[in-house]
Structures are given as C-alpha cells and as structure tokens.
Amino acid sequence: MHTTWYLSGARLVTAHADIANAALVVENARIAAVGGAAAMTPPAHARALDVSKFILVPGFIDLQFNGGFGHDFTAQPETIWQVAQELPRHGVAAFLPTIITAPFEKIQRAQSVLQNGAPENFRGATPLGLHLEGPFLNPQKRGAHNVAYMRLPDASSVRDWTPQNFVRLVTLAPELDGAREVIRALCENGVVVSAGHSMATFEEAQRAFDAGIAYGTHLFNAMPPLDHRAPGLAGALLNDARVTVGIIPDAIHVHPALVDLALRQKTAAHLNVVTDAMAALGMTPGKYLLGDFTVQVDETSARLEDGRLAGSILNLRDALVNLMRFTRCALSDALATMTTTPARVLHLENERGDIAPGYFADLVLLTADLRVAATMVQGQWAWYDAQELAL
Fold first, then answer.
1. pLDDT tens digits along 63-97
2. How far from 42 is each of 7, 26, 331, CA to CA, in Å?
C-alpha cells in the first residue's frame, strides 16, 4: 500500500534545476507535482514531511554492477533481489545486474530471476534488466573474465536478448568476426550495445558506431591505452558525440586527471559514472568471487592474484563525491552522470532519472555534506538513516 507524501523545504537539485525551498507530491509510485513550497498546497490526504535540512535529488542509476554485500550475480544470479534491497543505502534506486562472461545457462538463469519478479514485501533498488558483459569479448583484453567461455559473436545466439526478456545492455568487442551482425541484431531488438574488452582500432570503432554501438564500457579500462598516433577505442569513444561512455571514478581504474579530461570532452550528458562494484562492496577485506575467479580485496581495490583489477568496491554515493573532487564540477553535473544520462542511454528518459510530474518517485535525500539520509524507490522509502530522518 502506497502512502501519498508531501515533501517540503528541501533544496531540489537535478541535472537541469536547482530550486530552494522546493516541494513535491508523491502519489502511488510516481511524482504528482513539483514546485516551490510557498506556492504549493499539500493534498488533504498526504502525509507531510519536512525535509528542509536536506538536498533532494533523483535516485541514482548504476549501469554496471556485478554484485555486492557478499554476493556475485554471475556465480549466483538468484541473489539479485537480495542485493537490490541493500543498494538504497548508497542512493541507488535502479541498476543493471551485470553478468560477466559465463555459459549461456547462467544468462538464462539471471533472466529467469528477473522474470519471476521481486519477492513478497520487497523494498529495494529496481533491476531494470541485465547488462551482459560478454561472452563476445577479445581474450587479449579479458580483464577478470574467463577466456574459456568467450566466443565469437553469433547473431543466432542473441535472438531472445531483448528488454522484454530482461536484457538491456550488451558489451562486446566490435573488432571480432561477426560483431557487426550482432550489433545490428541487438539494436533491432531494442538492446543498447556497448564496446568494451576490446582491441579495436580507431577505424574499427568508428564502423561499429555506424552499425549502432552507442556506449563504451569503463572508458580506458580493458582497451589499449590512448596513443597520439593510434588513438584506438579510447580515442574513438572520446571523439564521437554519438557515444556515451561509462567511467569508474575510484582513482584506481582511472587517474583523476583523465576523469576530468573525459568529463570536459564528453560533458555530463555523455559521461556515465558506474561503479563496476563486485561482491566485496559493503564487506570487510578478504577473498570474494567474481564469476569463476577468487578476488583478493583490500581497503581500496579488488584484484586477481596476478594484480589485474577485478571490479571495484566503489559505491555510487562515493563516486558522486569523487567526480566532484576530481573535476570540480557542480553537483548538478555530477548528478547528471548517474541520473539523466543513464536513463537516456536505456531510453527511459521519460520516466526515470529526473524529478518531474509523471516520473517514478525515485528520490534521494542528501545531507549538506552529501551523505545519503534516505532513498525512496517508486514511492516507498527503501532505506533511511534514523539518526537523520524520522519516518
């Protein structure tokens, strides 16, 4: 049962607005009205909540999230809903559970988990569909993926990869034989296709963009370094205005100076902050799974035995703060990279990623120092800090 809420007094910040003393009405799962508190009368049946000490922002959206809180989605797709319940503490209202290179049976299991729907009394972040990072990757840029499961792109194997079948985003290496046929097939299905884990040249990448690739997976990582004579995939992603790029701002995957460069080149409208978080998110240092591999996690990073990075332990709230620190950008621009931009990438810009009438009521209350005080998902409080907010 949804409560009608009247939230008033907060500073409301989105990608394109900064309103002092704002107010909004939430009815059922959606936002019914937004405006200045002085000009708005709360509905008679609404529960009023004074949020004047907070900054009210859209719920965060993470397009690359491998697992967390001790659970890995590739090894155990059945844990998606369990992990989703914990994500609102970091401001995440929606996400793409990411399945890395694995047998097709694992992908089908993950599809079934989403098809079966949320458990009873579920309150947590909304899985918007799967991000399949593989198996059509280049073994030379395998990262923490198992080469044994990699294969050449094959259009016949992706026929049921559609948003209706819970596949939203697919990462592949566009230089592989058969890739362009798969790109076109996925685009026709309504799936967003991304270039990643790739040795593509600049020219190969351009041809892939022409074929329909609209995204780049974790810019600079699992692709050749940017070179002034051979710009490669990284250069092509930075150079093409049609393409949005994901980036992991943890100061480990990408140097802060290059995060700043990426934001200046792509702007917040085409830079998407992701975490690439793995099972160790929210846990103590130790050993955790990422797909088939055991990953050693310390206080700051997750690595395979040979030192290769294996996802991150970054959360989106910390990513927001890092992006502002690395680039000196405004809060509105930092928010865009994890709200309006990922919503547009997924073609969901008319219902997610913003605070406007008709949109899902995915909202975050931030303290003045940008800590998460509470997260609302589709009109229900999914998490709140009882020391900051009384509900």
1. 999 999 999 999 999 999 999 999 999 999 999 99
2. 9, 11, 28
Structural tokens at position 240: 């093409």
Res. 2 pLDDT band, cuts 50 70 90 = confident
Question: Cis peptide leading into 135, omega within 30 of 0?
Answer: yes
Using alpha carbons, list the distances in angstroms from residue 59 to 35, 45, 126, 205.
18, 25, 11, 32
* Rg of the chain in Å (alpha carbons): 20
Task: Please report which residue ranges of 116-229 form alpha helices under DSSP H.
Answer: 179-189, 202-211
Catalytic residue numbers?
276
293-297 sheet: strands from edge to edge: 286-290, 293-297, 302-303
DSSP 374: E
Alpha-carbon separation of residue 114 from 133, 164, 275 (angstroms) = 17, 11, 21
Task: Kindly give the pairing relationship between strand 126-127 and strand 60-65.
Answer: unpaired
Residues 6+ apart with CB under 8 A from 15: 268, 332, 333, 335, 336, 339, 340, 341, 353, 354
Q: Give the domains, in start order, of the chain with CATH numbers.
A: 5-57+353-384 (2.30.40.10), 60-345 (3.20.20.140)
Share of the chain above pLDDT 70, in %: 100
DSSP β-bridge partners for residue 294: 289
Looking at residue 264, what DSSP letter applies? H
Rounded distance between C-alpha atoms, residue 248 and residue 66, angstroms:
13
Tell me the CA distances in angstroms from 8 to 5, 20, 23, one per residue in order.
10, 10, 4
Q: 228, 318, 334: which is closest to 277 by C-alpha?
A: 318
